Amino acid sequence: GSKSLLNVISSTVDSLQTSTAVNLKQYRSLKIYPNPAGNELIIDNLNPGQTASIEVLTIQGELVKTANLQKRDGSMARIDVSSLHVGTYLCRITSADGNFAKMFVKD
């Protein structure tokens, strides 16, 4: 079964609380935009060379999109969200540096 959004947020918060202060500072600089999103979501300020797993979940906690990113240069990644229905979603990023989650709206 799918996790509820509260469980997803709770596990993400637990992960963030166990991260180091340096990692928390780095993840606070991550940006997800535009919000609301049209056809793509941009994830900015990733560490170059960093591998990250991206999950997009509905507010009910249903996983609707996954992507694996390998940033070779630059700090920006683009995720195609054109197939998502209009609504509110949670974007969760997991990497060796820790976890980051942010809500966004799909137009």
List keywords for this structure.
107 residues, alpha+beta, 2 helices
Task: Characterize the structure shown.
It is a single chain. The protein is α+β, with helices and mostly antiparallel strands and 107 residues long. It has helices spanning 5-18, 21-28; strands at residues 31-33, 40-44, 51-58, 63-70, 77-80, 87-95, 98-106. It has a four-stranded antiparallel beta sheet. Strands 1-2-5 form a three-stranded antiparallel beta sheet, with no helix packed on it. The longest helix has 14 residues, at 5-18. 15% of the residues are buried.
The count of helical stretches stands at: 2
Strand order of the largest sheet: 4-3-6-7
- Beta-strand residue percentage: 35-45%
Give the end-to-end Cα distance, rounded to a whole number of Å: 27 Å
The structural class is alpha+beta
Low-confidence sequence ranges: 16-26
Q: Describe the global form.
A: globular
How are the SSEs ordered, and which strands pair?
Blueprint: H1 5-18, H2 21-28, E1 31-33, E2 40-44, E3 51-58, E4 63-70, E5 77-80, E6 87-95, E7 98-106
Antiparallel strand pairs: 1-2, 2-5, 3-4, 3-6, 6-7
Short description:
The chain is α+β, with helices and mostly antiparallel strands.
